[in-house]
Amino acid sequence: MPATTPRVIVPVLMAITLALSVTSARTIEAASADDTARFLAGLPPSSNSPLTALARDAAWLSHAHYFDTMFAREESTHLSKVREFSKEYLTEKHDTMFYMFSGPDFLYANSLFPNASIYVLAGLEPVGEIPDLTSLSSWAIDEELRNLESSTDSLFSFSFFITQKMKVQLHEGPIYGTLPVLYVFLARTGKTIHSVNFGKLDEQGIFNIAENRGATNANTKKAVGSSSGVEIVFSEGNGPTQSLYYFSTNLANGSFERSGFSAFLTKLGPADSFIKSASYLLHRDQFASVRKSLLDNSATIVQDDSGIPLAYFDPRKWRLQAFGRYAGPISMFANFYQPRMADLFQGASPIEFGIGYRWRNNESNLILAEKRSSPTSDEQLTPNAAARVASSPKKMRKRAETEATPPLVCRIARVFPFCW
């Protein structure tokens, strides 16, 4: 009898070992995209998430407190007022929202157009990657959480991302690119992420989901101006699913068409568009194609003065309304001053929040451009500031000459967004 005991014990031990292995494997399953977003945003993941234990760490608790404070301040000083502006003035919303030169700024896109079915954001910054967080050391996670705080700081402080900082913050570390910032903003605006797909556009503007994510990551890191992108499907509460696309792509003439991004936008119009802190690139001939695409495929455009120049808004096709105060561009973009803006902003409605390069209260400007249902004859136009925006040929020639020279800051250091 004693001789047979080991023969009985061995199978039992093997069964126990196998059961423990299965249990262990289950506990280290990769976290869902939604739990990952919540963890990065300083919000507790679901109770059965493999990230729950990491959320007890002192460094994470400090990170959560920091984001609680920053988002509460941003909500009270900016986002709540942006939503009020949207409710009062953006009454004709559409299914699609375009935001060129956006970086990962989903916060303002969602605050202005909360019910869009499709959001399309685009910039030079890479899509990036978020590895399985359970595979990182506690030191590495702490470092990445601090980096996320630094990455979002300029948006909270000035309402826009500073490209020079993003060139470092969004290109380094195991967690890099716009994706982690998008995750944070989605989680902090109460969204639930259902799926995340990576891919690229073809020349016809069709988004092809990548079979090999590693190859997509490599291409995205090497080719900043490519049309690599990510599709994030999400919802808010029990609401309908919505899709957020972010593309790392070059919006300059030629690249804009070859990447398939031009065709992609055309398929989704008419849309609501938003432009802010765009380095006045849409004033320049090098970005004429994307400028024309926005005018052709937008039903509504909300922008500050760094967006499309007034001269391109035909008063027979567009109705313009001004908000805030036009104090001219900041000094580094002084050559993009628009005299016609002073006319348009006479009697402009106030705005209760700061936005754009002149982010301080009572210094910011916004223009709401709404496309008319059909071209209006000159006789039917009511003489007002919006009807005086077309530049004379002489002034257009002068502006074109100005466009030939990059702004001083771009000639010196290429510090601001999208200097070429």
Task: Write the SSE topology.
Elements: H1 5-27, H2 33-40, H3 58-89, E1 96-100, H4 106-112, E2 118-123, H5 138-158, H6 163-169, H7 179-188, E3 191-201, E4 207-209, H8 213-222, E5 228-236, E6 242-248, H9 255-258, H10 261-268, E7 271-275, H11 288-297, E8 298-303, E9 318-324, H12 339-344, E10 365-371, H13 393-403, H14 408-412
Parallel strand pairs: 1-2, 1-7, 2-6, 7-8
Antiparallel strand pairs: 3-4, 3-5, 5-6, 8-10, 9-10
Helix pairs in contact: 2-7, 3-4, 3-5, 10-11
N-to-C SSE string, H for helix and E for strand = HHHEHEHHHEEHEEHHEHEEHEHH
How many distinct domains? 1
Pairing-aware structural class of the strands and helices?
alpha/beta
Bulk shape? globular
Main sheet characteristics: 10 strands, mixed
Low-confidence stretches: 1-5, 10-27, 158-169, 215-225, 377-420
**Oligomerization status of the protein chains:** single chain
Averaging pLDDT over every residue, what do you get?
A: 81
Beta-strand level of the residues, as a percent range? 15-25%
Query: Distance N terminus to C terminus?
Result: 85 Å
Radius of gyration over alpha carbons?
Answer: 25 Å
- How helical, in percent, are the residues? 25-40%
DSSP, total strands: 10
Strand order of the largest sheet: 4-3-5-6-2-1-7-8-10-9
What's the tally of helices? Answer: 14
